[in-house]
Amino acid sequence: MPHKNEIDLEAHRDALLAILQPVADDSAYDERRINKLVQKYGRMDGGRFFSRDELIRAYRQFAGNYLPPFDASVIERLRMKPVRSASGVTPVTVLTKPFPCPGTCIFCPNDVRMPKSYLSDEPGAQRAEQNAFDPYLQTMSRLTTVSHRSAIRPTRSK
Ligand code: SF4
């Protein structure tokens, strides 16, 4: 059963296959050419473009069915190349549930959906809200995205 925030791959199958078929057929597809395909076949509902995470999930689901048999090298092509921060550390943001603060700092954001001082349009805050502020689910969601997008593997926590 898909996670509540995951798109319905079957509902977007035609657009996803339009992207995945050429990538599966041609090992010469690189980052730039895949990005062009993604831009050409945006989400059918007119929303945002498919993420690499969604393309990889779709490939795993459709390979051997609507696409040639599963080939791990296609996953490698679909993964975004590792982007390292200057420090070499990939942050994992975890937010507590919404909670007020007795402070009265006038410039501090006051979004009732978020813990005090956070704005709901920040990626970490959106991930927290989508995961009901569960710390385990927030961490899992972030690490899944990182591991799907690159070859980066978690090595330690602090
Ligand atoms: S900056 Fe915001 S969170 Fe920090 S003490 Fe002031 S009101 Fe509270």
- Gyration radius from CA atoms, angstroms: 18 Å
Bound molecules: iron/sulfur cluster
Unreliable sequence segments:
none
- One letter per element, helices H and strands E, the order comes to HHHHHH
Secondary-structure content class:
mainly alpha
As a percent range, the share of helical residues equals 40-55%
What's the N-to-C terminus distance? 32 Å
The total beta strand count reads 0
Can you count the helices? 6
Give the overall silhouette: elongated
Mean pLDDT: 83
Largest sheet: none
- Kindly estimate the percentage of residues that lie in beta strands according to DSSP: under 5%
Total discrete domains: 2
Describe this entry's structure for a reader.
It is a single chain. The protein is mainly alpha-helical. It folds into two domains: about 10-80, no CATH class; about 85-158, no CATH class. It has helices spanning about 15-25, 30-40, 50-60, 70-80, 125-130, 135-150. The protein is elongated, with a radius of gyration of 18 Å. Bound molecules: iron/sulfur cluster (SF4). Iron/sulfur cluster binds near residues 103, 105 and 108. Iron/sulfur cluster (SF4) binds near residues 101, 103, 108 and 116.
